[in-house]
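Quick one: structure for this chain?
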Amino acid sequence: MKPFDWNDIPREQMNPHLVRQAIHTGQMTVARLELKAGGAVPVHAHGNEQVSMVLSGRLKFIVAGEEVIVGAGQVLELPPDVPHGVEVLEDCTVIDLFTPPRQDWISGDDAYLRK
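Got it. Here's what it folds into:
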């Protein structure tokens, strides 16, 4: 068993405000996101449970129509199939965990992130 090293994981420039690195295991997807202030992730939903850990900066999540501010050192759990979007209030680094793995990301069916 060999550890993953973020320095070796490809960086995907999804749009001018979002860079993504992703590790897909048999049971989950782990993503490291770098988000620039002023960016946004459109409202969407997926069948994965998601845990977002904000390492630096601040995000405004819109979860089922409710606003939730999440800052450095905070963690937000999002149940499967709940509509959510994000506004980037400050430059951020975020670790997102998804279970099961994000098949849409694996197959490249993630156009909502590329806008």
